[in-house]
Structures
1.
Amino acid sequence: MKQFKGRVIVPGTCTAEALVSRGGFNTLASYQMALMFGDKQVKCGDQNNPDIYKKPMLGKALCLPMTIGSTTGGMVLYTACSMGKQPACMLFSLPIDSLAASGAILGDVWTEAKMPVVDGLGEEFLAYVKTGMTVTVREDGVVEVE
Amino acid sequence: MILTPEQQALLDGAKGETMAKVVKTLVMYGDAFGAERMVPVTSKYGHTVISFGLKAIKPVYALYDQLLDAGLVSGQKFTADPKPLDPNVPSSLLEDLVFKKIMYTDQKPYEEQLRRLGITSDDDYTCTCYLDEVGNKPEKGDVLSWAESSAVVYANSVLGARCNRNSGIIELMGSIAGFVPEFGLLTDEGRKASWVVELRCKHRPEAQLLGSAIGMKVMEEVPYVKGLDKWLGTELDKAACAYLKDFGAATASNGAVGLYHIENLTPEAKEQGEALIREGAQVYVIDDAELERVKRSYPVVWKDPEAKPQLCFVGCPHLTMQQLIDWTDRIEAALRAKSLPQVTVPTVFTASTPVLKEFEKTVYASKLRTYGVILSYICPLMYMNNPLCKKKAVITCSNKLRTYTSARYYTEAEILSIITTKEAAK
């Protein structure tokens, strides 16, 4: 088990299975088809992201460097939260970007979804965590990976 | 973050629970980036990226109903991104069914919501709101609450306004509150360049290719570009602005650039020169070979990579009046040289409705139609944003369209050649 300390953007706790995107996570491309066609597992639709393409995102601890792509990204994340289709948590190795922050905050303020968000976990975090590992997020921004 | 007494009162619910949530959202947004205060939005108009009534995002419309029910409308009128549908653009029966019955079922009610929230006009759906014909052109130093990556990067870089790369919904909340958190590109420090790009091309670089190369290299950081004034000159004339529109859209979509400086050309670079460059900035040298390498790196995601082009889109971002005129001249010359009456690939040129209305007053509009080109206000990106288009061989000279869809990128010269070849006509 290894611990990493980040900054809390949206507070909360959870334990979930890791889903790791080593490249930038394109929010629109990842969620578009799943939201449009009601995919219950919310499988990732971004064909340019081989790490997570076609893998279920619902309820996973999404580990990523940052989000990329369209400025609709925050709106898409908010929509996922409204529909209960959000990841269990979002864990950023880099400082959070403005689009991801928007989506996470909109989800926190305007929906019932609980999705803790922690950023700045560092390169080592993303190098260590692998898809399928168990991740626990603590209230103080400490993330345990085992 | 330190709020003024008025802002604190709003956060505490002085104007109701919904307004308090709007302000709480903006405060949390600012806190995430270390903002110490809110600053007033000073531009005359806002701009929203959400222009589409997509069934899949019903919660957004429910949220906007909540705002309207609380009596919250934008404190400033605003423009919006292009519409996703236009009957002028070719589509199959199946595509029509998917567009109208599955995807954009909420288009009309959403447009009504935008009217109530404060859109400037039913004509003002475009990603190029800053063009003179549309009239949403901020002044230098204005603070904006906009979303739409290509418009934000243009406003920051070419007009010298100040705006972060906001997400949809957040931009409307800034316009409702009348203030936004001060961080990033709203600050002098945030506008300094951490990359120097040195151009060593022997030919004028293609705007959308150069922007792509720089975007992919610097991602969300600010580049200071040296050597482009050799090709664009030192004045922001129509040709330079059109070039920078396309260049910027590519930097913002292939990377996440929100501001660039062009030495001797863009306003802050002219005023401050190399003082805009941070100490220790990285250097990226671009020559013709580098641009060719970048172009070759684009994946071809057509189902059949050898397919004949079925549709061509030009105008993402929307074309300017001068670009429409220039394309008309180029197509005329190419068709004449090849003794062809019309383009040989169905071709759609997209521009804002106000630009198209002005264009219709010129002789060029009827010429372009005679050559078989379709004029539309549509957003090509939204048109292609469905599973059916993955099977369609669409070509474009837009690097933004390439990035987000299965459209295949070619330079403008290549596009002109492809849509005027006799072989394609067969």
2.
Amino acid sequence: MDEMDEKEGKKSSKVKWIVMLVFIGLLLFEFITGIGLKDGQIFGKRNASDLTEKAGDGVELIIDPNAEHRLPYEDTGSFEQGVVITGWESMTFSSNTKEESVDFFNPEANAHLYYLTFELRLYQADKQGYEVLYTSNLVEPGKSIRHITLSRTLEKGVYNAVVHVQPYRMDAAKTLTNNADIKIKLIVN
Amino acid sequence: MIIILLTLSSAVISMAAGETITHESGEKRGSITVGYNAGVTYAVTIPASVTFSDTENVAERSLQVTNVVLNEGSVLHVNLASRNNFKMMNGEGYMEYHLKINSHDVQEDDQYTILSVSAGEPSGWVILNFVTDLQKDHLLYAGNYTDTLTFTVSIE
């Protein structure tokens, strides 16, 4: 009886090994040829020209491999990533110096996309024109300008000013984009 | 022993110099003021560009204001201005377009206010629909027709 069991056990073990080898063989075959089973259907590796689908009415629809996106990726609407700009309500300067502390910051969110430039504009009382007190060069994302030199000293008072923020794309041409005016109260003590 | 006493007495003197100490029943109680002055801050995300094609006469963009911290009672406004009065220009040639928000034409009478966020609201956003009728009557030259938008942020 024990002999019988032992024989059956060996037989079962052999069958397991054979099943395993067949399975490994199938995997290798699929890997080499690209033909396999998916969702109960045989599939194989396909080139773009082979991309054939059957519509409900049986008409074969083929994806044309020569078709290209008509618009650049960024022009496809909601996928475009905008320019992030931080703002303030006021800045405080000293009346007796042209050296001032600011925080003209290009957020990390603009990484690989946009440089920013900052221009501090002092608006005249009639709001028809403005005087430029400071203009930065390109500020990289994640960096900030902390100290600036104004074009002139200011008398004590509260002024209407604007920080004009102009973004530029971080491409070879450095093309400019839409921009922002941040209205602030410039307090000079 | 003398050294230890001197050290303790000097510590008491230094505490008394910096803080208010109340002496009650042998207990020492001090009080300090803990505070934080939050400045007004916010971040605005503006659309970098708006582009139409021959087949698309509507360009949808979003404008968002986030991390908004304002003084109580203040309101943050975002207004829109066009360099060429809502015309995409190429020399003297142009193509007109206009802005719609929620199917409403944004007019000059509105001062092109496109978003307002009140103090206490941490963020706000709006979908901007730029629309052109693709009228080519005024296209004089081939090439790119462009305009530049300025988003003005103010706090009142």
3.
Amino acid sequence: MDEAPQTKAISIEQLAMTFESIEGEKVEALHPVDLEISAGQFVALVGPSGCGKSTILNILAGFLTPTQGQALVGGEPIKKPSIDRGVVFQDYALFPWLNIIDNVAFGLERMGVGKKERLEIAAEYLGTVGLQDFARKKPSELSGGMKQRAAIARVFATDPSIILMDEPFGALDALTRRLLQHQLLEIWQKHKKTIIFVTHSVQEAVYLADRVLVMTARPGQIKLDNPIDLPYPREFTTKAFRDHEKLIYDVLDKELAKTFDLESKGRHVE
Amino acid sequence: MTLIRVTLPYLYASIAIIAVWQAVVTFTSAHVAILPPPALAAQTFIELVATGEIFIHIQASLSRVIAAWGLSALIAVPLGLAMGRWRRFENIVDPVVELFRPISPLAWIPLAILWFGISETGKIFIIFVATFFPILLNTVSGVKGVDKVLIRAGQVLGCEDEWSLFRKVILPASMPTIIVGFRIAFGTGWAAIIAAELVAAQSGLGYLIADGMEILRSDLVMVGMAVIGVLGVLIDSVFRVISNHCDWGT
């Protein structure tokens, strides 16, 4: 926790994914993508639904096997899920039969950390997200925002080199969302993990990430790779912040217009 | 307080049943061998309690159901876990299960006698048939109903092999549904003691009823039925408490 964690870079080479529907129709979810992510980077993936951002995340997690190309972590191709690549899910995915501290300690137990030590580590991370008083509660007794804070504590507790977050704040109200964004930045700056963060929200992406990748749908492609070098904490209202937002929206709007145009002409959208 | 609130409806129901029973006896002037009045049944019940005979019957029936139900759980839970997890295995086993499932425990009586004679094993076998399927089917649906995202969470939190995933995620996640299966199975097993104890039993509530029929003592029959009903409700409420305790709420 104290020493600089070993973070590994991610390389994605010609990664593509084609799903086959039940009728046998092939749907290209992800057009071949090349991408290099360096260690400690906070990368946000933004884009409309169906643009393949969750597909990339699921491949990186090891939940999906790409139909083409590969994703490498520290030079090793990803084959299956690993505790070294933590995931924060949109709907929290806390284990409902365990209380909060046991949820946070779950991965540590699997790593073979002794009971006393893992409860200490779990308590420390619960403190970081402000849940120290809820350690003995069951997930069902917590609000959505608190559940997601527990899930964030759980993923950081096992000290993975990469953290994948799939629209983690999508189901939360605006105020809770702000609080959690703030807490996430604090933990990230303290532990300097590589974070891949999928979101619908352009504002959230610019607020959190030091690099925003804009994806477009049909088939999923990266249209813009936008580094954000604004200092933290960022202000939504500054001109620089708005310029970044505008740049991203321009790309998204153009793509949306294209999609609508195609649809209004009655042509099938590939 | 809650105990009173829970038992009160059953008390009212019992009063209503006894009232209707008494009314039928009064208005039809039924012969005592056909429909004894509630008072006579109560008297018989008190006698059976006083001699301790009723407790021997209860114990006999209960231990048969527990043995059969435990055996079912031992076999049906692992089988159900495997069926719920591996589609290919389920595809093979499920048709076999579905072919056996509609066959009533009663239909197994002749074979049970042929195979196991009049021993205790035959009776346990009949109840086993009655308890097996509810546990199996609930286990299968419990495993299938485990949220996929919890399995993924388990995988990225260090359950890298199938066995640890089973132990740490799939089994606890499907536990509430499995416990519902235990509860339903105990109910069907308890209801099947009559069938089981038709096989040359010397004791048990089913024996009490069958014996009462043979010697034209319908008061014995009704006491047997009443005890089965009341004990059934009591056992079920124990399961309900366990079930609520295991239901973590989602």
4.
Amino acid sequence: MIKLSKLILLLIAAFLISCGGKEEKAEEQIKIGKKTTTTQKETKPISTGVPASQKIDLTNKGVGPIKKLDLPATIDEPMASTGKELFKVKCMACHKTHKKFIGPPPVGILEKRTPEWIMNMILNPEKMVVEDPLAKELLVEHNGSPMANQSLTEEEARAILEYFRTLKKE
Amino acid sequence: MKRLSIIFLAVTSLALVISSCNTGSRDTKSNGALASNVAEKVYVAPGEHDEFYAFISGGFSGQLSVYGLPSGRLFKVIPVFSQDPEKAWGYNEETKPMLNTSYGFIPWDDSHHPDISQTNGEVDGRWVFINGNNTPRIAKIDLSTFETTEIMEVPNSAGNHSSAFVTENTEYVVAGTRFSVPVPQQDISIKEYKGKFKGAVSFISIEPEHGHMEMAFQILLPGFDYDLAHPGRGASHGWFFFSTYNSEESHTLMEVNASQNDKDFIAAINWKKAEEYIKQGKFKTMPANYAHNVYDDKTHTATSTMKKEVKVLDPADCPGLVYFLPTPKSPHGCDVDPTGEYIVGNGKLSADLTVHSFSKMMEAIKNEKFDGDAYGIPIIKFEESLAGVVSQAGLGPLHTEFDDKGNGYTTFFISSEVVKWKVGTWEVIDRKPTYYSVGHLMIPGGNSRKPFGKYVVAMNKITKDRYLPTGPEVTQSAQLYDITGEKMELLLDFPTIGEPHYAAGIPADLVKPRSKKIFKLEENEHKYGVKSSEEVRVERNGNEVHVYMTMIRSHFTPDNIEGIKVGDKVYFHVTNLEQDYDVPHGISMIGANTSELLIMPGQTETFVWEPKQVGVWPFYCTDFCSALHQEMQGYVRVSPTSSDIKLSWSLGED
């Protein structure tokens, strides 16, 4: 009898714990903690192998508004020069074209990333560094410096991408 | 049996647990339905938005605070007339001109009566106007940026109290003087008050598209005290009503001498007529000296211009411009109902409210039912404009607001209460105590054609025991009442900034969509702004040094500067290159005799540093901006005045 009542008490306790939003949130927080540890695990190969900035992934399109983008064979020069001006104003505080600064240099980026990934990184950096595995690794590689969302339009981001196509390795 | 009962108990308690689980923690019926109901009415869940904005005057803080209703949460204190080191208002080079006056730079004022701009008699959420009482000024706050963008000094005025109220299409903002003074100012005996002192009432025009302010004209009234004002609306649009006291024209021991007359006046001013007289050239141009300060969102910089004259109308030369409505016992509040028909005068030394009828007033004017005149201004016979009296409603009536169901709500200072009464029948419907000594009250849109009669906010002069004590100086306070039912219901007390005088409220949906998120970098026209790190530089001109600096998460460009000398005057012009919402950066320099800068995305601000000691001195970002915020710092090397170290600057160079 005592056993039974204990069992019921336990049941009640279980219900109390299972209901309410607070507990769910606490669980989420723990998940975030776990994510960090898994990220660290993922980034371990960096020390032995290839850092994220050097990894090549020409299939990943990233997370964001750009789902599919086919680049024409020839470079649109007027668009590229618009992109160059935009890059100066909106990006150069953190990115130099040919040298790692706060963030990685864009030279040769199209040999390593899809055009969709590049534009999503420009347009949707907050989501990218949380959801995209490569962007996550890049954030760690760059000391946690966040990629700033510069509130560019898709057209502007596209122009910057076109400018990146003109950058020649030194 | 026993066993069964235990199982029964267990099952019911289980059921209880489950049910309480589903309904959530709000279900506190056991604590009394009333209490839980009240809590729910002001509860805005975390992450949700309030239904109304309330702009509450900061009183002797000189500022304007922004609250949410019904929660009573404080969102922002907008610096207006007083320096604010948090936002560098009046400290950075850009905003210092905003506090310029004909008396020079003034770091403080006493802000009283905010009023929201109107279109067709309804609040439109574009601007808030508020008066500086001590050094007469009117400020305009832009509700796309929630920043003060224009301040107009008011000449010939002293104690700018019957201000800053707007006409129903924001044609004008009015500014009436509380203290009459010699106009123009002159060196005469105070005893010469009677006849020599004048009360100027100013009409500042508002350009409809951008809101630019212009001192359109002043009307020079007799030497009374002009206390409060409200515009006509609907049928009475084109008129403005000002309460007066001290029609005795006394200049000393006012609490006795200004309370001798049984009645003072409400001045009814026909401003459409004034416009005609101005067109006809019936004004005098008086020499004057007053500052007009304008802040520009593109240059992020204010300019101050001294104006040298003002157009003045003398009612003696302008028949039909002004009439006096006798109103008992030193009226304070002067409030107009949503239809525009009724003008309520709250005789502060009385127990009654006097209500004038606009249509009766017009009839009396037509039939010249006058009871003499004051300095050539016709006095309408008391009974001829009288619509009714809310009698014995309380002690010390001060202010009235209206709901959308034909009710008036009046505060009573001496008896500490809000009284609800019926417009037209003048009967008292309900009364609720306030804690304590209530001054103004506010219903969102409550002085417009379209009130939103859900809440009334009462603003108290005394709080005494209502909050945890904080020494002799205790918090100022407002109280929120639900006015949707027949009876009012007290919902909430919340502390306020400074002494709250008037407030203005508006549905959040009329303001929210226009609220700016960032300043666009490409629109930045600041003289010293730099739009890319390529333009960053440091320039010397004698002992003046200009640093053209940028900031973005999480570094300054440059972050190392050498070649600065003791005795230099160093201007840091700092541009925030961020273009994302809610990423401001700050900057402060060790030993700078000024405040930090708090710079919004796309904005440029400037502070001045005059290094006094040789050494290497750090600066840093004051607003936690990113995970690397603590790394957002830099150094300036300061050498002796005689040193010949070259000016240099860098970022990321060894």
